Amino acid sequence: MPRTTAKYETVFILNTKKGEEGVNQLVEKFKNLISENGTVLNIDEWGKRKLAYPIEDETDGYYTLIEFEANPEFPAELDRIYNITDGVLRSLIIAK
pTM of this prediction? Predict the structure, then answer.
């Protein structure tokens, strides 16, 4: 029986302290991680924006939105990886 997949949307905000190259490496890391575990439907890089309030003394963050399809176990693993990755200020994963 084929495994069922669901549609998800994730937004993550990256610390911009490591510069453009550091940000791009992290964005690529998450794009690759999601495509290895599911199907990337759309990527929308909002770029560097001012945060509504400082997070970890940062006032700017790099925003990326990725829509994807994956099996229901994957978002918990993705969230775990967000939490242990240095440079991720905030992340959110929602089922569509």
Answer: 0.92
